[in-house]
Design a protein that fits this description.
Helix content is 73%, strand content 0%. It is an all-alpha fold and 274 residues long.
């Protein structure tokens, strides 16, 4: 018992150290955002501001329209997440329950596309958006992210874990494939769907590279792009930069803290069968 207790203590200590190392940059960012210019650049560094101030946040909101950036990020994130979940549900059901020639081969080819780096598709996607006349619009930020092979893979594996007898029973009772999907499978797959929605929302919220390419005006910028533009305006004033970064990161941190268990549970259940 003493050996087990000692081992657990060592494990907890190592986990606590690792957790502190991962959380410390965010804590330092929040603390720095409350400092003055002199305190932020002092050597040795000041661990806690002598006179905490919110002037950096006030400057950030006055210099850059972060509320507008926030609104754009919320719109893009909600629409992309809803479209991705809808398309993922339909695609996962197709490749898990419907029988048609070449189903497994087609799905294997789709999964193999995950090995293609995203950077290789940017030029093609950008050309398509320009030809469609959607450059510098919020729609351009949404269209390329309305589906995901990875999320389809997770949800398909979960659907495959549902017994076939449940499907045949529903069919005998007169339920169509559409009714069986939305009234039986979707409620059962709630853990995986929550995970897919959260992961996709985090990815859309933090999207940066694509927004730089297809957005030119200030009115259509999202928070990551707005923060990048703010760095040029703020110069080397790190305390202001930390305030702008906090505005971008805090919503994501709050979402993750409340939903971390659902993310882990959904990924583990979705990857048990494949």
């Amino acid at each position: 018992m003493k050996k087990i207790s000692a081992g657990r203590i060592i494990t907890y200590v190592l986990l606590a150290i690792g957790g502190f190392i991962m959380v410390f940059p965010f804590i330092w960012m929040l603390i720095s955002s409350l400092k003055t210019w002199a305190e932020c650049g002092s050597m040795p560094p000041t661990w806690w501001p002598h006179n905490p101030t919110l002037e950096n946040y006030i400057y950030a909101f006055k210099t850059a329209p972060f509320l507008k950036y926030f609104r754009n990020s919320v719109i893009v994130t909600i629409v992309c997440t809803a479209a991705t979940m809808f398309n993922t549900i339909l695609c996962a059901f197709t490749f898990s329950r419907l029988k048609f020639p070449g189903r497994d081969i087609i799905f294997s080819l789709m999964v193999s596309l995950m090995m293609i780096p995203y950077e290789m598709l940017i030029i093609t996607n950008y050309t398509t958006i320009v030809k469609m006349g959607l450059y510098d619009t919020l729609v351009a930020l949404i269209i390329p992210f309305t589906s995901s092979i990875f999320y389809t893979y997770i949800l398909r594996n979960f659907f495959l874990s549902i017994p076939d007898s449940l499907y045949y029973s529903a069919r005998v009772d007169g339920a169509s494939d559409w009714q069986y999907l939305w009234e039986v499978m979707v409620p059962i797959a709630k853990p995986s769907l929550v995970t897919i929605g959260l992961l996709d929302a985090l990815a859309c919220w933090n999207s940066f590279m694509w927004s730089i390419l297809v957005v030119g005006s200030v009115d259509n910028r999202t928070l990551p792009f707005g923060l990048f533009a703010f760095t040029d305006q703020a110069g080397v004033r790190f305390e202001r930069l930390m305030a702008g970064s906090s505005i971008v990161v805090i919503p994501v941190i709050i979402l993750f803290l409340f939903c971390r268990k659902q993310i882990v549970t959904g990924v583990s259940k979705g990857g048990m069968k494949g």
